[in-house]
Amino acid sequence: ELGPYSDYMRKEIHEQPDAIRRAVMGRLDERFATAKLGGLNFDPRELRNIKRVKFLGCGSAYYAGQMGAALVEELARIPADAEPASEFRYRSPVVDPDALYVAVSQSGETSDTLMAVQELKRKGGQVMGAVNVVGSAIGRECGHGIFLHAGPEVAVASTKALTNMAVNFALLALLLGRVRDLSAAQGERVVRGLRGLPSQVTAMLNAEDEIAAIASEFADADHMFFIGRVRGWPVAREGAQKLKEISYVHAEAYQAGELKHGPLALIAPDMPSVVVIPSDDLVAKNISTIEQIKARGGPVIAVTSTDIPAGLADALIRVPRTEPELEPILFNIPLQLLAYHTAAKLGRDIDKPRNLAKSVTVE
Ligand code: BG6
């Protein structure tokens, strides 16, 4: 089953172009520049009545939900956010009858997420599933939603399922946008962007050796920062999570703007920072973040789809340009590879990290 791969995580990383193709196949409506999501069961009027969207999930599914919330706000201009399902179910949440709740789960069996769905249903909330495993508990409990079509994921650390979550949320956001004010031209732009993703991911995977070399160079660090802002923030969080779960290197994600309010005190030559720089309005601010880190002797790995001054960062990982709203999907890929090759260099049991399970079905 593993074919040429030594473990499932690397196999699943390399399956991503096909996984994305499966997620968008048959779901893009070129004529009306929108998405078709058959499992959703909402008519246009019901879609228009959604006043708020909240994504609920655990671990990578929560970070994917954060990416989804940004997509929904940007493309549909509906207020949206994400919350860990494990928090939501315990905090006596106010359930908004005009909101759409999205339960996000690869396995569809995560107990915290399932309990959040049950709590929502009990309070009359409108909830849909975004699950990978067909027939799973969360999918059945929600009754409607979108399947991720990532294919079976075996490695504990989620890669292709996380990617397909974000791709599916782009489809959902496109659909919600096109029943509102997103123009056909803007819709076409997103459709084109989605179509282009698989070959862009392939191009990034072809540059794996360069990322492996960077991973070896920094693998002896005990701690790492992952810095991003706005679209780069959930990417930084997911990148930090991936690194810590499979390599056991302590990694912490921080919003770039918050660095100066505390963590800058930790910047030193033995504390590398991975800085995520999408092609957005904040490039200059992100460059100045790198300068602040460098001024304190901190090594920087820049991950970027834009041009930054030569020699500014100690290592540079290039990400191809896509439509701005879709950038987080591509930025995840090199961070998966960075985590993977750090763990490989350190000789970790990549598919089965210590203390973790693929899906946590008990408290
Ligand atoms: C964690 C896994 O326990 O559960 C993560 O280690 C995963 O990789 C999370 O993201 C949520 O799982 P699921 O199946 O609900 O997406």
TrEMBL record:
Main localisation: cytoplasm
One GO term describing the cellular component: cytosol
Active-site annotation: 358
Annotated SIS domain residues: 43-182, 214-353
Transmembrane feature ranges: none
Domain of life: Bacteria
GO biological processes: amino sugar biosynthetic process; carbohydrate metabolic process; fructose 6-phosphate metabolic process; protein N-linked glycosylation; UDP-N-acetylglucosamine metabolic process
Function: Catalyzes the first step in hexosamine metabolism, converting fructose-6P into glucosamine-6P using glutamine as a nitrogen source.
Protein name: Glutamine--fructose-6-phosphate aminotransferase [isomerizing]
Gene (UniProt): glmS
Full-protein positions shown: 254 to 616 of 616
